[in-house]
Amino acid sequence: MSDKLVLSDEEWKKRLNPQEYQVLRQHGTERPGSGCFLGTKEPGTYVCAGCNNPLFKSGEKFESGTGWPSFTQPLKPDAVAEYRDVSYGMVRTEVRCGRCDGHLGHVFPDGPPPTGLRYCMNSVAMKHAPEGQSLPLVTK
């Protein structure tokens, strides 16, 4: 993605609420079952809470039973970036925003067809733009 958003830690602290900062910038997670987007089915686009980068279409969302909103694929390949995560004694694939590098969640190879993937995301790391609306990209 060519329009990267790079801010200092202090700038992120000013822009994000404490829970958003903990997840997006410190690679935290929300408690399972606590996220506001867990059961939503409203049409639209899920965007990064840090920069409004479009991430997932609501049509790709499915109920995984894990306690976090799950999607079969990102809106476009460069919407997210994937990194090897070996924290907590596990080997996983971390998913970050392709624009601001904010931690979104993890992707697992146990999702439904057609991709077989489960993008397991933190609700606090996202916002929802209703169908037909878009949120302006955050700039410096």
TrEMBL record:
Native organism: Cystobacter ferrugineus
Swiss-Prot/TrEMBL catalytic activity: L-methionyl-[protein] + [thioredoxin]-disulfide + H2O = L-methionyl-(R)-S-oxide-[protein] + [thioredoxin]-dithiol
EC number(s) stated in the UniProt entry for this protein: 1.8.4.12
Coiled coil (UniProt feature): none
GO cellular component: cytoplasm
Similarity-based family: Belongs to the MsrB Met sulfoxide reductase family.
Cofactor(s) of this protein: Zn(2+)
Gene3D superfamilies (UniProt xref): Peptide methionine sulfoxide reductase
One GO BP annotation of this record: protein repair
Pfam family of the protein (one): SelR
Annotated ranges, domain MsrB: 9-131
Name of the protein in question: Peptide methionine sulfoxide reductase MsrB
